[in-house]
Write a structure and sequence with these properties.
Length: 1035
């Protein structure tokens, strides 16, 4: 938050009355304000209501308020929001002059015949026609009792939201003398600057006492025309020496400062002339005191002396009517007809062709022992020394004027690398050092003067080392990763680091070349920037990221860690441990400690401060990549970077603190198209914002159904490169994560459920500095009838009852279905039993009856009779076995896998053993007792029985094996014999046998299983049955 402060206002009425001195006398030569500040004008073309600016004030929410001849405007750095009579009838006309913000955050506006209050986005007026006694307001000052003090012609007033009080002769003020300035100190003493002199009104005192800093002769006046209190609590006052005999036409003024109860005069002895017109005092955050002046100039008091500064306004000489400094350190100036001006302090110095450089496109820099800075450009070489510039071009002997590399060796020789060769400069003499081969063999990319006196020369085709008259060349055959070398750095130990164009980073020492590439963690193989810090850590700039090499371990940094750009052109470090990195979109700085914290896993993001043309860079495109070194840290600590439009110079001492973060402001909130919150001027043709009821906790309550679309419109109050301000928001109640909006100034949320929500917004300026305390809009979203607790309870009860009824209906239907299925299953089982009785017992009993009839008929031989009785006995036994099989199949106690396998094993053994066939049974030691359906047991039993019958009738086997295997959800039965075998093709099978196997296949198919028969003539037969069974039935 920006603390309440009083704007420095013009004395328009005094100017009109002609009671201020005029005429400048002779003054020392003036300098240009633009030499120290970056100017930026705002006029009607930019949205300002009028070009005559009378008062400026930044309120605690960061907004810049401007009073003009035609209305009041609120400025966020990007857009003017104008308040005029059409929006607020209280404004009435254009006679507005002064601004002040009280300690409760209310905005007060002084006018010709009234006082205006802007509070809770509405205007209120105290009019002279309604008893406002002071009339025209000449000055305003916030009061610690609430409200404001206002000064008028002989009247002092105190006004708050409830009442106004007037004071005049009863407290010792002369009704004939105007009050020009007011200032209240923290203790509550009110200082009053009048035409007669300076007064003070102490708390609890009934009269204002004269407080002139010097005695006044009888009949003389000491007009006090401006007051200002600085951050240290000192009071500045501007006095004029007026003589009544000269009819108020004074000639001199002087500045006084009240410090610790004593007055000091500035200048100490001389006075300075002032002109008729508004008088302003402002002490900025740098300690300079600014005084308004008419014409095309302004005055600054620095170190006790008054310095006039030329403004060079484009519309010619103009008066400075008001001054203000915002929270970012910008100086704002209101003029008579040239509009509103922002003067941004230059913290960046530039050197271009205007300063004597041979070309603006600069590439490389170095510094010699005499502290001169040498600059390589596209037009030649420049030497800068204490403001003088000396140049060397092609006409002076350079092979080419395009200089890409500079280096100074220990004996003071300057080496110059151009696009086609190498030169040296010593004692003013330029020497050429040609390279053998084609022209591109001499295309120099980088130079490095080694501590041992040798010179390393990197070209587009090789790396060379010059030692006196000897040259050593390194190329790819010698271990160089790439012939095009772009960067060189030497450690104190003599180890050489090499950055290449596509071959990564290399180290050259006594053991030879060692390469670091992307497989080792390097972010990109194109390396053209190297820097070693005091800890011995190597920082590497590439085409795709910044890298750190420490203890032979690489760490890569990119935009996902907070860097503004992945490209790195060059790296410098200041005395505070901050890396300054140039790239193609400006320059940024980042604390080395923060990068180390990310590399070591102690943090995830770094904070960077970016510099662009908005900060004074002549160009955002810096050079590097194919020139080295592309930067310089001079002995005085300043940092030099080459750009496409000259050299840019940073003094790190001027960049201790990051710029103040912007203050974000929520301007409008709409709920499904309905305006529910508005800080913008009211459209007279649109319905006013909906008055929202309040929830019991005091928050606004949005009506039901308005959560379909909630729209927030907002801005950020930042006044340098405001279009680059970034935003993040979140809607607490919907989620806790911050949403990155970029530069977008609106946010939408749809289909919100009823409940409490809190919209939070933060902003960052173009330097990337984020505000700590968010702007907030909290609200309740009322539920619709179908979203209330009563409706939900009734709905839940209805659903429960419906579910219960449905379940009861389903249960009854399920039971009925179960009963029907059981009846059908019982009927099928009865039919099957009846069919089995008919097929097995019926056939056997019929045969027994026929044989009995034959035995009781004609006499037969004893031998024949005996044979008949043997057949009769055999069929009787078959009938008994068939009856047992039917009883076993019908009994529910045998409806398990274990029972089925046991029965099948018995049947196989009992059927084959009497026939002389050796039988082997392989059954798992334990089988589950889980139930099996009767039809499954029936079909499996008859299938195995049919296969056993085939062995007895056709196989001529001596041995058989019955194998049972269980798998998850599958039961496998196998019957092997060593009989004569056969061709399993159906056409080759004998009739009865083929029909029997088809029956087996059909039964297994009905169970959803598979039947597989394997047989070869003379090698036996294997029948395999696989049927699905319930999972719980198989172990």
């Amino acid at each position: 938050m920006i603390p309440a402060r009083r704007t420095t206002c013009p004395l328009r009425l005094a100017a009109l009355l002609g009671i201020l001195p005029a005429a400048f006398s002779s003054e020392p030569p003036r300098t240009r304000l633009a030499d120290e500040f970056l100017p930026r004008p705002y006029t009607k073309e930019h949205g300002l209501p009028d070009n005559e600016v009378r008062s400026i004030l930044q309120t605690r929410d960061g907004s810049l308020w401007v009073v003009t001849q035609r209305g009041v405007a609120r400025f966020d750095g990007l857009r003017f929001v104008n308040f005029e009579r059409i929006h607020a009838p209280e404004i009435e006309d254009e006679h507005l002059h002064h601004l002040a913000e009280d300690f409760d955050g209310h905005l007060w506006i002084g006018a010709r015949d009234r006082l205006l209050l802007y509070s809770e986005y509405r205007f209120r007026a105290w009019r002279r026609s309604e008893g406002w006694r002071p009339g025209a307001v000449l000055c305003l000052e916030p009061s610690r009792k609430g409200g404001v003090w206002s000064g008028a012609q002989g009247i002092l007033a105190h006004t708050n939201r409830d009442r106004s009080e007037w004071f005049g002769e009863e407290i010792g003020l002369d009704p004939g003398h105007a009050i020009f300035a007011l200032n209240e100190c923290p203790a509550g003493t009110l200082w009053i600057g009048t035409m007669a002199g300076l007064y003070r009104l102490d708390p609890g005192h009934a009269r204002a006492e004269p407080a002139d800093p010097v005695p006044r002769p009888p009949g003389h006046l000491l007009p006090t025309v401006a007051l200002h209190r600085n951050r240290a609590g000192d009071l500045w006052a501007l006095f004029t020496d007026l003589d009544p005999a000269k009819a108020y036409h004074g000639t001199n003024a002087w500045l006084g400062r009240l410090r610790e109860g004593r007055w000091e005069r500035h200048p100490a002895s001389d006075t300075f002339p002032i002109t008729q017109g508004p008088q302003v005092i402002l002490e900025d955050s740098r300690g300079d005191v600014w005084l308004s002046a008419t014409g095309d100039r302004i005055r600054r008091v620095r170190n006790g002396s008054v310095q006039p500064l030329d403004l060079d306004l484009p519309d010619g000489p103009d008066g400075v009517m008001c001054l203000h400094e915002d929270g970012e350190g910008n100086l704002w100036m209101g003029t008579g007809w040239s509009g509103l001006w922002r003067w941004q302090p230059r913290r960046v110095t530039t050197r271009t062709v205007l300063a004597g450089l041979p070309h603006d496109n600069t590439w490389t820099l170095c510094q010699t022992s005499d502290d001169a800075v040498w600059i390589g450009t596209d037009g030649g070489l420049a030497r800068l020394d204490e403001g003088t510039v000396q140049t060397w071009t092609a006409s002076d002997g350079l092979a080419r004027a395009h200089i890409r590399a500079l280096a100074v060796d220990p004996d003071g020789t300057l080496w110059i690398g151009t696009g086609s060769g190498l030169h040296s400069l010593r004692d003013g003499q330029l020497h050429d050092h040609p390279f053998p081969g084609e022209w591109f063999d001499g295309k120099i990319r980088a130079l490095l003067a080694s501590k041992d006196g040798s010179l390393w020369v990197a070209t587009a085709t090789a790396l060379h080392r010059l030692q006196g008259a000897y040259r050593t060349t390194f190329n790819t055959a010698d271990g160089l990763a790439h012939p095009d070398v772009r960067a060189l750095h030497e450690e104190a130990s003599g180890t050489l680091w090499i950055g290449t164009f596509g071959g990564g980073l290399q180290r050259l020492d006594q053991e030879g070349f060692r390469t670091y590439d992307t497989a080792d963690g390097l972010s990109d193989p194109y390396v053209w920037a190297l820097h070693e810090d005091a800890d011995g850590t190597l920082w590497i700039g590439t085409a795709s990221g910044l890298n750190r090499l420490r203890h032979d371990r690489l760490t890569a940094f990119s935009t996902r860690h907070g860097l503004p750009d992945n490209l790195v052109n060059f790296i410098l470090e200041d005395h505070l441990g901050r890396l300054w990195i140039s790239h193609d979109r400006g320059i940024y700085r980042v604390a080395r400690a923060e990068l180390n914290a990310v590399a070591e896993g102690r943090a995830h993001q770094v904070r960077c401060v970016s510099y662009t043309t908005a900060d004074g860079l002549p160009s955002e495109e810096t050079n590097g990549q194919k020139s080295y070194p592309a930067g310089l840290r001079a002995r005085d600590g300043r940092l030099w970077f080459p750009t496409t439009r000259g050299v840019v110079i940073f003094d790190p001492a001027l960049h201790h603190e990051e710029s103040a973060p912007p203050a974000s402001v929520i301007e409008q909130v709409r709920a499904t198209g309905t305006l529910v919150h508005n800080t913008l001027p009211r459209d007279p043709f649109a319905p006013p914002p909906t008055m929202l009821p309040r929830h019991r906790d005091g928050l606004p309550r949005l009506p039901a159904g308005s959560g379909r679309v909630i729209e927030f419109q907002f801005t950020a109050n930042t006044f340098v490169s405001a279009d680059h301000a970034r935003f993040r928001c979140r809607l607490v109640g919907l989620g806790e994560e911050w949403l990155d909006l970029g530069t977008r100034r609106e946010a939408f949320f749809t289909n919100l459920d009823p409940g409490r929500y809190r919209f939070e917004l933060i902003a960052a300026n173009h330097h990337g500095v984020w505000q700590d305390i968010p702007a907030v809009f909290a609200f309740h979203l009322a539920p619709a009838f179908h979203q209330t607790a009563a409706f939900r309870t009734a709905g839940a009860a209805a659903i429960v009852l419906s579910v219960v009824a449905f379940l009861r209906w389903r249960t009854r239907a399920w039971r009925e279905r179960q009963q029907l299925e059981q009846a059908l299953a019982l009927a099928r089982e009865r039919a099957r039993i009846a069919q089995d009785l008919h097929d097995n017992l019926g056939a056997n009993l019929t045969q027994l009856s026929l044989m009995a009839n034959l035995s009781g008929g004609d006499p037969v031989e004893p031998h024949s009779l005996h044979e008949r009785f043997r057949h009769l006995s055999h069929h009787a036994h078959q009938t008994i076995h068939a009856l047992r099989d039917l009883l076993w199949l019908a009994h529910p106690r045998h409806d398990t896998v274990a029972s089925l396998v046991h029965r099948l094993s018995q049947h196989v053994q009992n059927a084959l053993t009497p026939a002389g066939i050796r039988c082997r049974i392989h059954v798992p030691p334990s089988l589950p007792d889980a139930p099996l359906p009767p039809d499954q047991r029936h079909h499996l039993f008859l299938a195995i029985k049919e296969l056993v019958t085939n062995i007895l009738k056709h196989a001529r086997a001596t041995e058989a094996r019955f194998v049972v295997q269980s798998q998850p959800s599958v039961l496998r039965l196998e019957l092997h014999d060593d009989g004569r075998g056969f061709d399993p093709a159906p056409a080759s099978l004998p009739g009865p046998t083929g029909y029997g196997l088809e029956n087996v296949r059909s039964r297994i198919s009905q169970l959803g299983g598979r039947f597989h028969l394997t047989s070869t003539a003379g090698h036996g037969t294997c029948a395999r049955i696989e049927v699905p069974v319930p999972v719980s039935s198989v172990r």
